[in-house]
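pasting for ref. prot 1 ->
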Amino acid sequence: MKLLSERLRLYVIPDPIQGRGLSLEEQAGLALEGGATALQLRHKEADSIDLYHEALALRKLCDEYGALFIVDDRLDIALAAGADGVHLGAKDLPVAAARSLAPEGFIIGATARTPETATAAEKAGADYLGVGAVFPTESKKDTRVIGLEGLRKVVCATSLPCVAIGGIRPDNVTEVLSAGVVGVAVIGAVVGACDIPAAAAKFGKVLGPS
């Protein structure tokens, strides 16, 4: 079995807006075809029943490709659909509360922008951290950009595997990796591309084998 750090190498988040009219399931399948090692279901506008069915579809795809499947925000949907884990932001269910409800082996990711939030998430029981935004990003206009130096500070503050997110492209992956992260999370740079498998494969070449 691959280590969690290896499975987080290329973490793709399908998007209903940036996905060029494709469904989340279609985007996910193409990203996996190109080498994505993890997928996150994030669809904030969907109601619970639609989100559940999307989760089932992505769970099946990830099983076919041997990829990690994470649900954003919603622990209930993640558990109901048999996801590998959930990713929790600052305004979601606290990591410690989620850990108390989750079964053994269930993965909990947390968002961190500062060394302090990274340390707190680790103490609360998180398994990995999503760190950013490293660069300005189209997916979240109002997000705070921490830059490469901010990324390094977070990575140095924790023993958890860290995934960088925010404005990451093939041409800046190398400098992002130099900060000590195990992988990158991408949205538009993959699912917004005309050729999603090729875009994912281009990241894979820079990131190296998982």
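and prot 2 ->
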Amino acid sequence: MVANSVSPAHLTATGVARAGGTGTMGSHTVSRIGYGAMQLERLHADRDTALALLRHLVELGVDHVDTAQFYGNGFVNELLQDALRPEDGVVVVSKVGADPNPGGPIPLRPAQRPEQLRASVEDNLTSLGLDQIPVVNLRRLDTGPGLRAEGDQVVDLDDQLAAMTALREEGKIGAIGLSSVTLEVLRRALPAGIICVQNSYSLVSRDDEEMLRFCVGEQIAWMPFFPLGGAFPTMPKVADEPAVTAAARSLGCTPAQVGLAWLLQHAPNVLLIPGTASADHLDANVAAGTVTLDEATVAALDAVRSHSGDVRLGEDSVDPA
């Protein structure tokens, strides 16, 4: 009898099966379920719990993490530096295009100018304790939800990409992604070698379907933020849809797991980065990778209406991207 085995390609550097299966992000082979670190800000007063959560995600087979210097004004990056070890093989994905704004009505402000992008990369390198950030997303402010560029923060894409490619040539970043962009901007940026796109996208908000399909053709990873909708009061929530709750009852899982499983089955280039400050929620998010939706369920979910619209930030808002 031949024992069951898992191909090495489907294992993380620590020998654990990759959460949600195996995907690609440029030259990186990663778990299809990653982790969005923004919500670690909630654990500012409980550093030990935050560090334990990060160690737990490695144990679960998660090997890519989304972060930013403006998450807690460097606090989240410092947690990653302390918790993650080189031998864990975790791909750190950060972003530039906004800076922390402590004490302001909104805790971040646009930072789109080339010199600001460079400064932000340097800040990320310091707080992460890295010589090179594997992937850095240029967060444009072309599309919502969230901040918009005004005045001197309206910067030509070519000028920004020149700064990003120079940083890549210098070895300070390994690869370039984009966030909060239109399809037109993505097409213009392709010659710079874009490996991933982060836009707001979920079962209930599919305005970017054409861009997702374009990314499939170009072998660009699609890493949706707000994967379950509902980040702002005016945004629809995946868990509120009757088709989602019906599927969850039938499958014996949660509506959130149905929403994440739908994303994984919807396109082969999807890499998830759900965030949480709870170990139980982290377990549940990773378990979504084991949920299989049959054809009838997928058809029912595909028929859910996509809610178009934009959300701007108000004074009590937190921009999570």
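The domain at 22-229+269-275 is CATH 3.20.20.100 (TIM Barrel).
The chain is about 35% helix and 15% strand.
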